[in-house]
Amino acid sequence: MFGPGGPTFRELAVQALSSVEHGYDLLARKFDHTPFRTPDHVLESVAKALAPLGPFEDGLDLCCGTGAGTQVLTALCRRSVTGVDFSAGMLDVARDGGRSAGAPGVAWVRGDARALPFTAAFDLVVSFGAFGHFLPRELPGLFGQVHSVLRPGGRFAFPVFAPPRPAHPGYWTLLGFDAVMRVRNALWRPPFVMYYRTFPLSTVQRELARTGFTVELRALPEFGRRADGSPRARLVTARRAGPRPAGGQPAAGRVNS
């Protein structure tokens, strides 16, 4: 499926009946040949929007997968870049794929975003396409973990796209996908948590603010606007309170790199 190099239908079915971690281990070698990999134009748009907020010293790609998002960090961070993911298979592909070429210093770390193995070591954390793997009740803990690994004045940034309206076929596609996943998880163990409609912007802003972040929204102009004038895509930037220390401190607390 998805063209040459992509997984077969059978491989996708086996993944869908596995746990999230094992499913991505199975898919890892073919992941970059699927539409699930964040497109380059999204990465480039985010990098462009973040550039005026720098310079940054140390960056973390949260739920990095095969490392596509590290392209953003290596262009923005002057000292080090870290990718963290709980799938050993995805990290192996990231290491083998040369994602670190030209970077000031890159580490790949196996770890769970719900219990990050770092101290306050970063002044920029980004994430792409991973939030569907977290249930709404997990967001406070997830955002708390990100807050804990940022230095004072550090930023947590990620793109959010406006959901399709009911008149658009995509609305029903996403609704149907989430419904199928809920049925699958009710009937089959282990669960495979992946939903497209459980990360509304209003909820995200509220939970980030409760965690202690100051939240800003920036339109990503490359994606245009909807008929009502609202942006099709926004960059969420959540800032931890406090001044950024001059020069930062060396990244610390890495394990399993």
Automatic annotation (TrEMBL):
SUPFAM superfamilies reported for this sequence: S-adenosyl-L-methionine-dependent methyltransferases
Is the keyword Methyltransferase in the record?
yes
Q: Which domain of life does the protein's organism represent?
A: Bacteria
GO terms (BP aspect): methylation
Q: State a single Pfam family of this protein.
A: Methyltransf_25
Which InterPro entries does the entry link to?
Methyltransf_25, SAM-dependent_MTases_sf
Q: Where is region (Disordered) located?
A: 228-257
User: From start to end residue, where is composition biased (Low complexity)?
Assistant: 238-257
GO molecular function of the protein, one example?
A: methyltransferase activity
Print the keywords alphabetically.
Methyltransferase, Transferase
Report whether Transferase shows up as a keyword of the record. yes
Q: Where does the Methyltransferase domain start and stop, copy by copy?
A: 60-154
This protein's name: Class I SAM-dependent methyltransferase
Task: Give the species this sequence originates from.
Answer: Streptomyces actinomycinicus
Show the taxonomic lineage. Answer: Bacteria, Bacillati, Actinomycetota, Actinomycetes, Kitasatosporales
